[in-house]
User: Which sequence fits this backbone?
């Protein structure tokens, strides 16, 4: 019976992202800080620890999990705000390609301009901060 259970557990895998690892570590740390083991028997301590690990492993509200994409392959200064502006510019670009209207062109050029300005600002700020860090050393 135990072998069948172990075998079935080995074949079922859960997706585990970097964010899952961070959230699990944070929850586990908080739950361990609230754990009271003083005065408990060893068996009760083990059961309490197992319960803390189980409770920490539950993510969110149990609803459908959304795939979390990372920005690993981007530059260090490229953050989620840049990604949002980029997506908006690309959406306006696809609208422009479909409709070829003057209004779509205006929306696209404004959106692309704000995206490019944001990128320049973020990159300059990143390099300035990096230079400041090196001067502190």
Assistant:
């Amino acid at each position: 019976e135990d072998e069948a259970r172990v075998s079935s557990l080995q074949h079922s895998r859960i997706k585990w992202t970097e964010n899952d690892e961070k959230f699990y570590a944070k929850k586990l740390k908080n739950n361990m800080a609230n754990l009271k083991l003083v005065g408990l028997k060893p068996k009760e301590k083990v059961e309490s620890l197992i319960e803390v690990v189980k409770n920490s492993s539950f993510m969110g509200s149990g609803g459908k999990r959304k795939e979390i994409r990372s920005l690993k392959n981007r530059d260090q200064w490229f953050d989620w705000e840049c990604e949002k502006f980029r997506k908006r510019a690309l959406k306006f670009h696809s609208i422009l390609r479909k409709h070829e209207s003057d209004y779509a062109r205006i929306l696209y050029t404004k959106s692309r301009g704000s995206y490019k300005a944001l990128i320049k600002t973020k990159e300059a700020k990143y390099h300035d901060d990096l230079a400041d860090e090196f001067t502190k050393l």
Observations:
- The CA atoms of residues 37 and 45 lie 6 Å apart.
- The chain is about 70% helix and 0% strand.
